[in-house]
Amino acid sequence: MEPAMDVTMSKEEEARLVRRIDRRVLPMLFLIYIVAFLDRANVSSALTMSMPEELGLTGQQPNTALAVFFVPYILCEIPSNMLMKRFTPHVWLSFCILGFGVVMLCQGFVKNFGGLVTTRFFLGLFEAGIFPGSFYLISFWYKREEAQERFTFYFCSVIVASAFGGLLASGIAEMDGLGGLSNWRWIFILEGILTIVVAAIAFFWVSDFPAEANWLSQAEKDFVLQKTRGEESEKLDGKVTMADLAGFFKDPKNYFGALMYFSVVVPVYAFAYFTPTIVRTLGYSVVQTQLHSVPPFAAALGLCAILAYLSGRTKTRMPYVLFSAGILIIGLALLMTTRGNFSAQYAGICMVCMGAFGAGAIVICWYLMNLEGHKQRSIGSGWMISFGNTGGILAPFAFLPRYAPEYTPGYSTCMAVASLGIIVTLCYALLVMRDRRRMARGASAGKNGHTLSL
C-alpha cells in the first residue's frame, strides 16, 4: 500500500529524524558484522600460532579450510535475503548470529582437519545472510545522497574487525595453556561467547524495514517512505518470482556490478586472511606480528571516511572507485618489486588495504542504490555479494606457504583482478550512461522516477 498521506517536515525536523535513524539502525548492524568478520577471519591469527601442528594440518589443508567457508556462503545469500523479508530482519539476523556464534564456540574444540572443515562450512552457512541482508536493509532507510556515508560506515565494520582481530589475537596469544587449552583455541571460544551475547542483544535492537519499525510514529514512517520514493511499501509484500529473477539477469549491468565487487573481494580477503602471515615474513614474533597487522587497516579506515564524504557531497561514485583501484595497484606493484626493503613493503601492504577497502563501500552503494524496489535489491544484494565472494575461494590459494616470502603468484593474482576491476567499472559506467540517456528520452523511466547515478 502507499503511504497514508503526504507528510512534510522542516529541514531541522528531517535532520533530527535522520540522526535518530542513524543511531537506531546503524550501530547494531555495525556490531553484528564486527563479530561476524572476526569469527570468519580469526583463523588467520590462529594459523600463526600452534593450530597447524595440533590439528596436523599439512600442505594446502589450511587454505582448503578457509575456502570451504565460501561454498554455503555463496549459495545461500539470495535465499537468505528472501527469508529475511519473510521473517523480518530482527528475527532472521539474530537467528543467523546465534548460529554462527555456537559454531565458532565449537571450533575452539576441534581435534583434526575434518572438524575444522565442518565448522567452517556451517560458519559460512549461518553468516551468508548478514552482509547482503544488512546492505539490503540499510538501502531502504536513506535517500541516495544520504546513503554513501551510511554504507561506508557499515562497510568499515570489516576494517575495524580486521584491525581489532589483530589486537585481540595479540592479547589472547598470552593465554596459551590457560585451562589446559592452547591460545588459538581461546580465540574461537571467547569470540564465540561474544557472538552469542550479541545475538541476544540483536533480537531486541535490530531495526526492521521502515514500514515495520515500531519505534517510529506513523507520520515518521510515511515520511521515510516518501523520501525514499515509496519503494518499500510498494514492494514489501510481493514475492520474488522466477520471472523477477529472469528479468534481473537480462540486464547486463548486474553482471558488471557483481564483477566490480569481485575485483574488490579478492584483495580484501587475501590481505584480511594473510596480512599476519605476510607481516611475519618481515621478521616479527607472534605478538609483534598481530600488532603490526593493525596500522594498514587503520589507514584504510581513514581513506574510507574521506572518500565517503567526498562521494556523498559530489553525488558521484565512479571517480572514487577508480582512485581506490589506482592506490591498490600501486601497493601491489610495491610488494611485487621490492625485496628486503621493510619500509617499501609495509607501505605496499598499507596501500593495498586502503585501495581495496576504499573501493568496496563505494561499489556496493553505487550498485545497490541504482536498483529499484525490494525485489531488485533483494536479488541484487545477494547476487552481488555471493558472486563477489567467489573471490573468497580464490584468495586463500593465492598465498600458499611455498610461495613465501615473495608471494609472487598471490600479488600477481591480485594485480590481475584489480586491473579487471578498472575495466568492469568503466563498462558499468557506460551502461549506466546509456540507460540514463534512454530515461531522458522517456523510453524506460522507473515507476517511481527512479534514476541511475554515476
Explain this structure.
The chain has 22 helices and no strands. The protein has helices spanning 11-41, 43-46, 51-55, 61-68, 70-75, 77-87, 89-107, 113-127, 130-138, 144-172, 183-205, 218-227, 231-235, 242-248, 253-280, 286-292, 295-314, 318-337, 342-369, 373-388, 391-394, 408-440. The protein is mainly alpha-helical and 454 residues long. Helix 10 packs antiparallel against helix 19 (342-369), helix 15 (253-280) packs antiparallel against helix 16 and helix 18 (318-337) packs antiparallel against helix 19 (342-369). Mean pLDDT is 85; it is low at 230-234 and 444-448.
Mean pLDDT: 85
Global geometry = globular
Structural category: mainly alpha
What's the alpha carbon Rg, rounded to whole Å? 22 Å
Q: How many helical elements?
A: 22
Instruction: Report the end-to-end length measured between terminal Cα atoms.
Output: 31 Å
Order of helices and strands: HHHHHHHHHHHHHHHHHHHHHH
| Helix content bin | over 70%
| Biggest sheet architecture | none
Poorly predicted residue ranges: 230-234, 444-448
- The proportion of residues in beta strands is under 5%
Instruction: Count the beta strands.
Output: 0
Main location: membrane
Protein name: Allantoate permease
InterPro entries: MFS, MFS_dom, MFS_trans_sf
Domain Major facilitator superfamily (MFS) profile: 25-436
